[in-house]
Amino acid sequence: MSMTRVRSGAGATSPPMEKTPTPATRMGPLGRIRADRVLLVIAVPGLLYFLVFHYGALFGNVLAFQNYIPFLGVSGSEWVGLAHFERMFGDPEFWNAVANTLFIATLQLVFFFPAPLALALLLHSIVGDTVRKFVQSVVYLPHFLSWVIVIALFQQMLGGAGVVNGWLSDLGAGSISIIGNPGAYGPLVVAQLIWKECGWATIIFLAALSQVDEQQYEAAAIDGAGWGRRLWHVTLPAIRPVIVLLLVLRLGEFLSIGFEQFFLQRQSVGPEVGEVLDTFVYYTGFAGGDFGYAAAVGLFKGVIGVILIYTANKVAHRLGEQGVYKA
Amino acid sequence: MSVTGAPAWMGRPSPAVRVVKAAALTVVVLLVIFPLWTVLATSLAAPENVIANGGWVIWPERFSFDAYADILQGGIITRALMVSAGVTVIGTALSLVCTIGLAYTLSRPKVYGGKPMLLLVLFTFLFPPGMVPLFLVVQSTGLVDQYAALILPFLINVFNLVVMRGFFQSIPQELLDAARMDGAGELAILRKVVLPLSKAVIAVIGLFYAVAYWNRFFEAIIYFNDQTKWPIGTVLRQYVTGGASLSETAGEMATASPQSVQMAVVILATLPIVCVYPFLQRYFAKGVLTGALKA
Description:
The complex is a heterodimer of chains A (about 325) and B (about 300). Chain A is an all-alpha fold and about 325 residues long. Chain A has two domains: about 25-80, no CATH class; about 90-320, MetI-like (MetI-like fold). Chain A is built from 17 helices and two strands. Chain A has a two-stranded antiparallel sheet with strand order 1-2. In chain A, helix 5 (about 85-90) packs across helix 17 (about 290-320), helix 11 (about 185-210) packs across helix 13 (about 225-250) and helix 12 runs antiparallel to helix 13 (about 225-250). Chain B has helices at about 15-45, 45-50, 65-70, 75-105, 115-125, 130-140, 160-170, 175-180, 185-195, 200-215, 220-225, 230-240, 245-250, 260-285, 290-295. Chain B has about 300 residues and is mainly α. In chain B, helix 3 packs across helix 14 (about 260-285), helix 4 packs across helix 7 (about 160-170) and helix 7 (about 160-170) runs antiparallel to helix 10. Chain B has 15 helices and no strands. The model of chain B is unreliable at about 290-295 (pLDDT under 50). Chain B: It holds the Pfam family BPD_transp_1. Chain B: Belongs to the binding-protein-dependent transport system permease family.
């Protein structure tokens, strides 16, 4: 059986010209299934997973159009059409969650997005291999810690009885209130995100920086360009496509500000500033028992998300870059 | 990427630049390490130390492992650690097997139904399952209160799948054809040719899965009614960030300060990650990840 199919070179990328009809292409569907049976069998568990947990969940969105009662199930619950969506548009708590989500997303874009680029430039400028590898190891680590741990660390450092307040009181400088202070919530969550993900996010910038042509630096240096001018005239133009691509993709995921981080801290500052769209879904559905309405809000966010990602990918393609889902 | 020593054109940076750079790097490194350090120090400090200093220490004047002894003598934390370990080991193994199987099939150029299968998978990238509908699926598949609820809904990560497929595609077709000529079947090719060549990418993706399983805490809150089945992350959230007191769990035997006990839980939840981290580290250097992230 192993001789039944002989494949030509590189598959997808090769032009469809050298068409020596292989046995596989001459077979009917049944023959092809039989020829590929081993490959198809090993794909089954993975495909089943996607069908059940992704497409099953996609189907579960019918809840958004029902007055869902767990006891009656999807088939027994009453259909309410767009009632949940009408309620949503008139619900001030929903709009509060939208406003908080947009506020935090904007803070993330302005303060988190450039941070890894700056850190990558710093890392890239380290000449010694050992030092650079050490610093890289350190700054990648927080990416692998869970949000529970990150928030526990921030409480330990910045909380009312934390390390920083201990120092301040030793200096007789009073105390700062950050954890649990609604006014400081926005900056706090962005600082947490930077602490956790900034190092990891440098990877892609570092990869881009390593591609920059050495000769351009050399030429610039010989022409008398100092550190600053080399950065401005050589480095940044060279990695601009990567920056633009990442920015476009980030805009596509504008609403995906994360969930666990906000779920963990929403209680400490209250829903006024702490409620974002995903926590709103959780508190309405799982804490409030209003599953239909929660599913409607989740579906609304999902649809906006698809539109954003789709648009961002179109833009990215326009810019001549490879999008994410066009693998 | 590996430039050893400065190229000639760079010249020597001025002392001022070097001082500023060194200072910036020191601050960055300290910002990451210092919080972890105080947590470790507090967990290891004797109660009188911790109380005298107002709840935390930077250096334990007298070391004490009481906090660890308190929580590891059985009870909620011990149990939760075992749940997390079990979910992580079994979950990672299942995830790898399913990811490799599907990724390999999708990486073969003319496999029957390849295109629709790929679209089916990639579409889920656009529209991740919502919290409520996914719960409905978990409920209707009878997974509530089952440890499998912490594994099956997260079996395959699309990103990991795409990376794995990309790697399999990069294996020269001639190698596979040669094995096929020698009479090897698809499974034998996968086992004897493809997998040995893919050790690095499998290690990295396996560690990604393991870290994700170990860190997952939210789902146990909604999928489990039975709190004794909670993994460590969920318990940690309850007692550390949720503000509940741990002293009850440690029981009357408690000899350490409550702060030390809390910090010991944080350390125990962090430790496995810090332990596997150096192994993951080896592959950063090999550029597996940069290649992966660009894919």
